[in-house]
Specification:
Chain lengths: 409, 409
């Protein structure tokens, strides 16, 4: 991978204490969103950085996914450009060209190879981007790039669509005397929102990683986080999670320190993932589903995912109904072995089903607890195996249905 | 399989012209339903008949499923006893004994072996049956058994729970000069309704079949019908479909005539299945999803099922929204191969997506058509293969969510 030309951005402003070194951010509005809200987000690095990417598994993929996917992992990335308000999905050859043009336009300002710019889009499907607006937006954002917290938040804001809240997380970790910083931003409120699409996330860090390490770490962390959430189970055409590592914190980490960093990344992505579920379209509660006792972790995962996706479980949580029958029977139709006679269920810490038999409990009191807590913990034991899994899911409310049905293309 | 003792029911009343010969029916109320509606349903045969059964694939199975499943296929069945209002599911050893006691009680009146009585239950999960009520109900129903259409409809009524309408179908088919009659009844409005469970169906016919033929025919017909519908994708603990063949129409059928009967059965079960979707909890519209061009029929089935289950597709149909992005992207995340560049979509006969590209169409007019039709046909071509599949699904409305969340155990 070739090195890109040196940055044209000098002098560098001082990064915020909470942000990793080597990154500048900007978010601005270019008119893609009729509301006038921010819709162009830039992350530009001071020097070429290592970048890893994890993308949607949907067979129908948006143009920016095709573009970025071909460029990661890499050790020469200079920038990520994201637009919201238009997903550039199902847009054919023109869409492919537009995604590339976004990279080229930003590369022109940076003075780097367009191959070293990644691109993400989120918003309406099947509509061509207004490239004049996008190019103006990129120029406008480029001029205000800064390493400040304010700019970081503006960049995070500019990737949002139907999100009700910003989803960001920052962390400083001491690894072998080095202070490694990580800052992540994400968006997403439905796997596909009404005329919007996608969950997107970018994690920046100043840790020193090679591109294969970064790719493995990101994949592992995604499997522990973004792949364990469900709002409506609909995998978008645009899902993208990127990890950028500038290496400015210090020398390469030992294997031990890398393991520690992996754990921190898992946790950090998990926090972002949980923010997406908390902001799920119409969600009043979220379920924290824990499955244990399965034969393997994979089995536990399938069971947790099946319970998380059941509309009857979701509506039970909406209504504060400790309806163990719906939860246990959802586990029973999951494509993984369970042992019905050993199945136990706890909701909000209360055992209501034990070894295949209902347990007497104060339903009214438990219902009150479920209703008054934003987060409803569900612990499901399905046998005596070692397999465990966690999963986050939002409930299903009339607001979700209204939101997604009272809209016409 | 041993023969049961001769029937104690003589003389037989004359069967209704539309019903197969050899069956009597009754539906009555015994108090399991607080509403006082019918909750005990009997089908008693004049002589031992062939019976086949298809049951839930849920690993958590109700006691009546355990009971009936062990008895089919059979050539000695004398009766089916069904209660509604209580699913006898997750009820442990006591539940197993109660299901057996239902068979024994009815067998006592008939004078047959309890092994020749099948049992089904539907209703609330995790509550023991009040056996005094059930036994009184069986006695009461037994006394009024008749082969009349009125009794058939009462028996069909007595298996219902949250159903808004009776689901019955009858047919007379001429096969090699024989008039074979088939009469089916079904219930189900959600795979699991709020405090109710299950889809149940019983198909009676006077065709002559051996028990293996009956089992194969029923399984084939179920795969073409009840396994191709979705209200909420939640497989119940009690799902049961039975086929009873009395053989009173005439001698054994030729292979050709059997093939014809199979086709009629497929269609007949499909009609019952469609009635369940039409009566789906809160449903305003149903989708008739047709997938073609897949590599195999199995692939087409998986794609159709995935589209049918997507909450975003369902809410689009609720809103009369010709949102091809949601449908095409749901196909894209199905666990079966699609060819994005060859994917085409028609809604209500109008092509709106062709070979991976959106087609200009009058969205307002199509939306009006979708809104004004109870049934919305969706035709999705995913490549050039020979694989096809059909699937029925209800839409997702606020009424579904209210119905399933505004209830507390």
């Amino acid at each position: 991978m070739s090195q890109s030309p040196p940055t044209s951005l000098t002098p560098l402003d001082e990064p915020s204490d909470s942000l990793p070194k080597g990154f500048r951010f900007a978010g601005t509005a270019c008119g893609l969103k009729a509301s006038g809200k921010k819709d162009i987000s830039l992350i530009v690095t001071d020097r070429p950085v290592v970048a890893a990417g994890v993308y949607t598994r949907n067979q129908i993929v948006a143009a920016p996914v095709v573009n970025s996917r071909s460029k990661t992992p890499s050790c020469s990335i200079r920038a990520v450009v994201t637009n919201s308000g238009n997903a550039n999905a199902c847009t054919g050859q023109q869409g492919i060209e537009n995604a590339q043009a976004m990279c080229e336009h930003l590369a022109g300002f940076i003075g780097c190879d367009p191959e070293h710019v990644l691109v993400m889009s989120t918003g309406v499907i099947g509509v061509q981007l207004s490239m004049d607006q996008v190019k103006n937006g990129i120029e406008k954002a480029y001029k205000v790039l800064a390493a400040s917290t304010e700019n970081f938040l503006e960049a995070a804001d500019a990737i949002c669509t139907t999100d009700q809240s910003l989803k960001v997380v920052t962390r400083a970790i001491t690894l072998e005397g080095q202070t490694v910083k990580v800052a992540g931003m994400a968006k997403g409120a439905g796997m596909i929102a009404p005329n919007m699409a996608t969950m997107l996330a970018v994690i920046t860090t100043d840790a020193t990683l090679d591109h294969q390490q970064a790719q493995t770490m990101l994949k592992t962390a995604c499997n522990e986080s973004f792949n364990r959430i469900s709002v409506d189970g609909h995998t978008s055409t645009n899902d993208t999670v990127l990890l950028l590592a500038s290496g400015e914190a210090g020398p390469e980490l030992s294997v031990e320190a890398q393991t520690q960093l992996q754990q921190e990344l898992n946790q950090l992505l998990n926090e972002l993932a949980k923010q997406i579920v908390l902001d799920g379209e119409g969600a009043k509660h979220i379920m924290a589903i824990q499955v244990c006792g399965a034969e393997h972790d994979d089995d536990a995962f399938i069971i947790a995912k099946t319970v998380a996706a059941s509309p009857l479980v979701k509506t039970a949580i909406t209504g504060g109904d400790p309806n163990w029958g719906r939860i246990v029977s959802a586990a029973g139709y999951a494509d993984a072995h369970i042992s019905p006679e050993e199945t136990c269920l706890e909701i909000c810490g209360e055992t209501i089903y034990e070894n295949g038999t209902p347990v007497a409990f104060d339903a009214a009191r438990l219902s009150e607890t479920m209703k008054s807590n934003r987060e409803v913990p569900i612990v499901l034991k399905v046998g005596r195996g070692e397999g465990t899994a966690k999963y986050w899911s939002s409930d299903l409310t009339t607001a979700y249905v209204e939101f997604n049905s009272e809209y016409t293309t």
